[in-house]
Amino acid sequence: MGRTNSDGSEGRLFCQALSRASTRINVMAALVVAGAAWSAPTAAQAQTAAQCIAPQTQQLMNACAAKEYAQADAALNAAWKPAKAFADAIGKGSALLEAQRAWIAYRDIACDAHASPFEGGSMQPLIRATCLSELTAARTRMLLEFHAY
In this structure, how many other beta carbons lie within 10 angstroms of the beta carbon of residue 92? Predict the structure, then answer.
């Protein structure tokens, strides 16, 4: 009735086939999950202005907050260039660079701590991204003031 392997054990072929089928199902399930995650709005996907005025889902709130942080980060990078040039011109370029690196480390750790009560929850990305945006905007203002002296 059952097939036997060359070593005479019955059922081994069935178990091997079952194992291969199980592996295929696990791979397919992983692809489905990955596809679902890929289709969900992320920080990289642009949100319309209308969607971000009053987002109605947590996923959209998270995506809009991430977009706002990306904009704040772009403004920081734009403010950095003239501030660094001014610092170099007055002999303080190394000091400003050291301060900026320390500030980035502080910002990231502070926002991780700020969002930590929500760890594992759906609103943690919103809390963290909002913190990053606020601290980044404040640092941008400082850099803009620095090169304006």
Answer: 15
Residues belonging to the chain = 149
Closest CA to 59 of 129, 109, 107, 12: 129
Which residue segment(s) compose the domain that 58 sits in? 49-146
Per DSSP, the three-state class of 124 is helix
Name the domain count of the chain.
2
* 26 Cα distance to chain centroid: 26
Instruction: Give the other-Cβ count within 10 Å of 134's Cβ.
Output: 16
Do residue 34 and residue 60 come from a single domain?
Answer: no
Query: Can you read off the two tokens belonging to residue 45?
Result: 């996907």
Give phi and psi for 10, each to the nearest 5: -80, 150
Model pTM score: 0.67
41-90 pLDDT per residue, tens = 444 455 677 888 889 999 999 999 999 999 999 999 999 999 999 999 99
Same domain, 59 and 128: yes
Say if residue 136 is in the same domain as residue 80. yes
